[in-house]
Specification:
mainly alpha
Length: 73
């Protein structure tokens, strides 16, 4: 596996984590709606915990993509 293939695979893995985090946030919000808003505190807490994870994943993705772009230039 070349370094470019490794970087592309790493980017694909990070995209998968971003999708999974967004799906988890969506499912938590839907669960809150289905329970009539009873678990608002738990939902907000879960979203607050997942948001930094999502931001970190996006930041890591952009950092690696920038590195790959700089190598191509």
């Amino acid at each position: 596996m070349t370094e470019n293939e490794y970087i592309k695979a790493k980017l694909d893995l990070i995209k998968l984590f971003i999708s999974a985090t967004l799906a988890a946030m969506f499912l938590i919000a839907v669960y809150n709606l289905q329970t009539g808003g009873v678990h608002v505190f738990t939902t907000i807490l879960a979203e607050i915990i997942l948001l930094p994870l999502l931001l970190f994943e996006i930041w890591e993705y952009l950092k690696i993509a920038k590195k790959l772009h700089n190598e191509k230039s």
